[in-house]
Amino acid sequence: MEWLTSVGLGLDYDALGLGRTTHEWIGAGEQLRNDLTHLLNGTVTSVEQVGSSSVLNLLAKPIVDIAIGVKNEHDFSAARELLAAAGWIYRGDAGDKGGHVFVLETKPWHRLAHAHVVEFDGAQWRDYLRFRDLLRTSPTACAQYEAVKQQLAAQVGDDRVAYTDGKTAIVTQLLNNPNAVR
Question: Residues 145-169: pLDDT tens digits?
């Protein structure tokens, strides 16, 4: 895991730090995606790098987000066991706010990556990919999203829950009106 911190990834749970996504962050996310695809081979349908840290130069927390798509509860159970054996910590079911959440930490509460296990091709899965792809292709969407992120960071300090909850409206707006921002 040292290779993840060497490219500037990692953030304490009770802190909110933002930086520009770099090629190294994206590369680290791709390596994690590849590692998870290999680890979970046969138990999951797909693994994708998502979130702000998958979009070059976008303001983001230095934490990689991965979406893992499963077909059913049996596949989730198998994936959960494999993820735990590989050092991913299960943090519970966030429901519509992120699915089953796993974290990769270098020390307690210092996160390098989040893995969100959701139903493959379900609403969350599609939204993760649609939002990532929108941000990768629309400078206007990036600017709108980033403005909200900066405003929230100034308002909520290190309250990451308030920061994450505060982004919900802009994410929904951008997903519901993607053609309006291109």
Answer: 999 999 999 999 999 889 999 999 9
